[in-house]
Amino acid sequence: MTLEQQRARMKSAVWKAISQSGVDVSVLPSEQQAKIVDAVADEGLVVMNEILDEVYKKEAGKPATEGEETVIWEGRPFLSLVENYVITSERIKISRGLLGKDYENFELIRIQDIDVSKAVTERLFGLGDIHIRGADPSTPVITLRNINNPNEVYEMLRKAWLAARKRYGLIFREEM
Question: Which secondary-structure segment (H or E) carries 90?
Fold first, then answer.
């Protein structure tokens, strides 16, 4: 479900709760009613994401290092419990699924380009997508969806990518 769909569902739930509460909001102009519902829905989504963060952090409980790899960042898409991202000093790990798990690894030295995009709704919540293109034949493009503070994560990933390339003696060559 997209962020816009989740937001619409939350707004619908707020309107339903208002109508079931018996509170007469007709004294307010319709624009103010809509503003209140938007504010309550948006804040409800943020609180729900914080609750899911707490659940995820309790379940994760992973050490800061995995072998020789150092975990640089861990996260998940906004309002998701079935998809998790881990960026280490060597690779990007993506796991999907609640009961059955699907794991995907993307080596940092195979990255060729990283971009950040933010849709209007994502910008409201401080979210964005990170698109990673690389030389991995099985998955040439991966997207870290609905990431909180995507610019910070982008910078962490970029620094880890450059460090990995330096560690393995790879240099950039640009074509003109």
Answer: none
